[in-house]
Design goal:
alpha+beta; three-stranded antiparallel β-sheet; two-stranded antiparallel ribbon; 17% helix; 13% strand
Length: 126
């Protein structure tokens, strides 16, 4: 959810794009002629590649900051905690996000869906 820069109060999601009971996004304009909307579900592709699996595609907890673009102590959106022996540290933006193999996994899911609906033919990368 976006926040107002002045007072950091969450802004409501536009009416045309709200979360519905099944967890998917509903876009009121999706049925308009000429607009093609499809969903690519990545869950099956990621089975066996979670943060605790031997072939991880997703990062577990990653402490930061890991560069200028990461969370730093004092950032309003940062989740910072004190660890014994480490001191105050923040969770990294990398935490619970895909590793290189995970982004490739997502790309294959989207590529397969685009092929299935006739939007691309062959390999997107070659």
């Amino acid at each position: 959810m976006k926040t107002s820069p002045k007072n950091n109060i969450p802004k409501p999601m536009p009416a045309r794009c709200r979360t519905v009971s099944n967890g998917s996004l509903r876009i009121n304009d999706a049925g308009k002629p000429g607009l093609h909307v499809s969903y690519a579900n990545p869950i099956d592709a990621f089975v066996g590649h979670g943060g605790c699996d031997s072939d991880e595609w997703i990062n577990k907890i990653v402490l930061g900051p890991n560069g200028d673009g990461d969370f730093h102590e004092g950032d309003p959106q940062a989740v910072c905690i004190a660890f014994s022996g480490i001191g105050q540290t923040c969770l990294s933006r990398e935490a619970f996000h895909p590793k290189q193999a995970g982004t490739t996994g997502y790309a294959h899911v989207v590529e397969n869906r685009l092929t299935a609906i006739g939007r691309i033919h062959g390999n997107m990368t070659g």
